[in-house]
Amino acid sequence: MNDAGLNRVDAWAEVGRARKHESAELHVRGQATYTDDIAELAGTLHAALGLSARAHARVKGIDLAPVRASRGVVAVLTARDIPGLNDCGPIVHDDPILADGLVQYVGQPIFIVVADSHDNARRAARLAVVDYDDLPAILTPQAARAAASYVLPPMRLARGDAAQAFARAPHVVKGELHVGGQEQFYLEGQVAYAIPGEDRGMHVYCSTQHPSEMQHVVAHALGLHSHHVTVECRRMGGGFGGKESQSALWAAAASIAAVRTGRPVKLRADRDDDMLVTGKRHCFHYEYEVGYDDEGRILAAKVDMVSRAGYSADLSGPVATRAVCHFDNAYYLSDVEIRAACGKTNTQSNTAFRGFGGPQGAIAIEYVIDEIARKLGRDALDVRRLNLYGKTERNVTPFGQEIVDNVLPELLAELEADSDYRARRAAILEYNRASPVLRKGLALTPLKFGIAFNVTHLNQAGALVHVYVDGSILVNHGGTEMGQGINTKVMQVVAHELGVELARVRATATNTSKVANTSATAASTGADLNGKAAQDAARKIRARLADFAAAQYGGLASEVRFAAGTVFVAGLTLPFGELVAKAYLARVQLWSDGFYATPGLHWDAKTMTGRPFSYFAYGAAVSEVVVDTLTGEWKLLRVDALYDAGRSLNPSIDIGQVEGAFIQGMGWLTTEELWWNPAGKLMTHAPSTYKIPAVSDCPEDLRVRLFDNANVEDSIHRSKAVGEPPLLLPFSVFFAIRDAISSVGDHKINPPLSAPATSEEILKAVEFVEAARG
Ligand code: MTE
Ligand code: HPA
Ligand code: MOS
């Protein structure tokens, strides 16, 4: 081959390329199969859940006769009909599948109706007559704290000597903040389809981020071993954390009904039921106290946070831990004390949601810095920069992990310049001077996010790669596809390793009978972990093929090259498929497993110190808003975001993730308001009352760029995770709104602003500033 040809081969790569999502065309054509689209077997029945109408009560009696008599009903099942354990809790076993004598929130499932159709099951589920004996209910995290009602013991992380540092601090700011929860609002709701098989076997199709956990929960509920149960998920129409643990209820209920009736049973939640039954992002209440110097440097910080865990533990412990480990966000806090508690309330059991407590931890310090800047009359960007972690000093987190690749100073400088931050700040001051009603605001906020499950043993993954005799390749891995593009990335990794075009590789449904003991696809680690596992499998196959090629054609196995669908061996070239066919005839194993466990992680839960994260991802965004100070309405005018995806595996997918997370996080902080009535019923349980962002809420001018920065850790092709961290970027929207509000008082008054900053909340804040201004 000539030099040009060799260069082409050297430059060949399948990773790092913008490739469309492997299901993009199926998605837009409506041909992608979701769980509810799977062709139903003859005899399939449909289930619905009967829900508690009370927040906290003893159930004295239930009359299920009207349910049984309803049209099409085949069976009605209560806790007593569960063959095995009545539990679907992921960590602490305090989560009954069906309430047994005690209901703990409005919406808690009490019984399962199985009928001949979805509608008949739903209609019947409403006909039960339940006799309740009401008990006192706790509905808010503050009330939980006042009653010392917790699902887990409170946690504390301290470094330095906060008390002494406060004594030395020239200024102290003290206050409270409330940040609301958020419904995951996956477009495809919770759904499971359970098919009983021979000899106690059970196959469950389930929309879940965690097939292995579904397998365990179903096996326990049915009194079976894991090997009896297979759980399969080709894709989800979104999970966002809401299907990390909480798909278990649906998988278990469908399986119980399938065992009891001996027929396939599908359980698909209606949207209102889905929202009433399942947990959401935890709301947090904070009390903070921060000491700082004349320039705005933080000298001492104390925060006490309490979350609304709901009635059971679910993932509230790890969520609170992540909140504690992200209170620092991008800033060095020398003397700090962080407390967190998970308030036990008579509401849905809150769970994972994109960011998993990280956003809730970090927003508190951003709120405080915003206050400090206003008190000192400085631009908040300058105060943020002053407090940033250092590169070689002031670079250890409160939990003791050294930050070795802090790129925030460069990243912020780049974004500040590209977004024209200073000139726009001046223009906005000018604009506001002449505009009494419409006020503009601007904010730049940074993010740092730790990547790894904060439960060390979860950081492992497996994969299975098959090369067929025709040279086509099938990859299966433990991760689940929820729209984030994990399959595309893993396929790219495998194609890259074997030197073939992406079209030759196909990914199959996640299935517990293929890769065992998988972790949830969560903590943004899906591509990191499963990409490495698939790479390991592909490398084993490539090594066998290289050995075979060298033996066949001469030269060293280590010099055999695979690129662009071609194998280069001893000066010869041959198509990949041809080598594969020859290797098969020579009885070479053409498939392999692969495994990966993230190295270097450790965590001491008692002291809350260690190295919980493999690395940190960084980013920042600038948002500009205009607020109508008479109505509280506002509009996002422009966003500039810069995100460090390391050496991106797929820039177009990563940019899509940043955009999606930004808009989703903006919804959390602005329009999405969960509201429970005084009796504890969630009243915002449908899109009619719960406002997620629409296309019209997206800024016309949205500029997302990736910051080029190879990961210092040996991650998959030096990429960085992208799934969750960008959810922190729309902090800039929240603080731009606060900036616009504060312009009403010449930026001298700190408007108290809770999240979500709904129009109502914005108006209240404007009125506060007007009253304080006099
Ligand atoms: N993107 C889409 N389209 N749909 C989703 O449900 N979930 C997010 C994020 N991006 C989600 C998504 C969450 S909560 C996580 S943890 C990651 O994707 C999980 O995928 P990954 O680890 O493969 O990035
Ligand atoms: N993210 C998501 N799920 C988890 C985590 C996490 O950090 N830790 C344990 N489960
Ligand atoms: Mo994501 S909240 O870790 O599923």
UniProtKB/TrEMBL annotation:
Its cofactor is Mo-molybdopterin cytosine dinucleotide; [2Fe-2S] cluster; FAD; Mo-molybdopterin. Gene3D superfamilies: Aldehyde oxidase/xanthine dehydrogenase, a/b hammerhead (3.90.1170.50), Aldehyde oxidase/xanthine dehydrogenase, molybdopterin binding domain (3.30.365.10). Residues 29-136 form the Aldehyde oxidase/xanthine dehydrogenase a/b hammerhead domain. Coiled coil: none annotated. It comes from the Bacteria. Pfam families: Ald_Xan_dh_C, MoCoBD_1, MoCoBD_2. GO terms for molecular function: 2 iron, 2 sulfur cluster binding; iron ion binding; molybdenum ion binding; oxidoreductase activity. Keywords: 2Fe-2S, Iron, Iron-sulfur, Metal-binding, Oxidoreductase. The keyword Oxidoreductase applies. PANTHER family: XANTHINE DEHYDROGENASE. Belongs to the xanthine dehydrogenase family. This is Xanthine dehydrogenase molybdopterin binding subunit. It comes from Massilia oculi. The lineage of its organism: Bacteria, Pseudomonadati, Pseudomonadota, Betaproteobacteria, Burkholderiales.
